[in-house]
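Side project, low priority. Logging it here so it doesn't get lost.
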Amino acid sequence: MSLEELKKKATELDITFDDETTEDDLNVLISEKEEELSSDLDYLKKEKIKWEEEAKKAFKKRDLAASEKRKLSEKLKELEDLTKDSVGKDELEALRTEFEELKKYKEEVEKKQEEEELKKVDDVERGKIQFAKQMDALKKQMDDMKTSYAKDLEEAQKKEKEQLKAIESLRGNRLESDILRAAAKSNAYNPDQIVALTKGFFTYDEQLDKYSNLVRDVGGKIVDELSVDEYIKTFLGREENENLVKSGASSSSFDTKAQQRADTISASAGKGKYKANDPQIIKEAEDKHLPPADWAEIKEKMEVKQAALREKK
């Protein structure tokens, strides 16, 4: 991941950094933040369990209070029954006083228990709401991270495809350049034509980083492998392709003619219509991946051949 992509991801995670922060520092900060988010999720799960336990305790106290309330009600009922059957004034007053005290105590207990229950319920509900909000925020943050990662992955795959396409194009240009040089060496009339005719017969070997022609027998088994130079020489040496080679050239004389041409390249800048030091020739030779002297010679031969064809018409 590039430095710009790391900065973008750090910004999404609310990580503070400046222009002096290195790529390694950003990697460390991002890793720590992701671990922190993971820890936050574990904390929220523990909080949920804690609030559930608190709620159970609150409900247990509520049930205990209800039991006490029931016992008080039964006691009051007993006192009421006694007061009905009692005949002594002093005893009646004492029972009434006890009854009022118990009634007051009962009301106080019920009120206090109700307040505690309401408080506990409010705390639990508030805790649930806070937990839900924190979970939603964490989920959104995780979703944003997934979306960002998917987008980064898509961009990386797109770049990879573009790079592979560029590499294929460069390999194709290199193959065409190799065919052009081999065709020129073999004295072909039109090297560009040879490229069009033969470039489909070559296979690229990624391990060896080169193109070659695979020779197969009748059963399809590979029996030989020819380099670009070897195949072009064989191709132009075939009887049916004599029209593609300058008159008088043969496969046996290709190497000799190529050597003779190489011996005279140094002097070609001052001979013929096209000069190897001509800026236009140099530019065209670079486009075709050929030495300027070779391209000057090839271009002149092509014009001679075209002139001869026009005269025959």
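Brief comment: DSSP finds eight helices and three strands in the chain.
Revisit when time allows.
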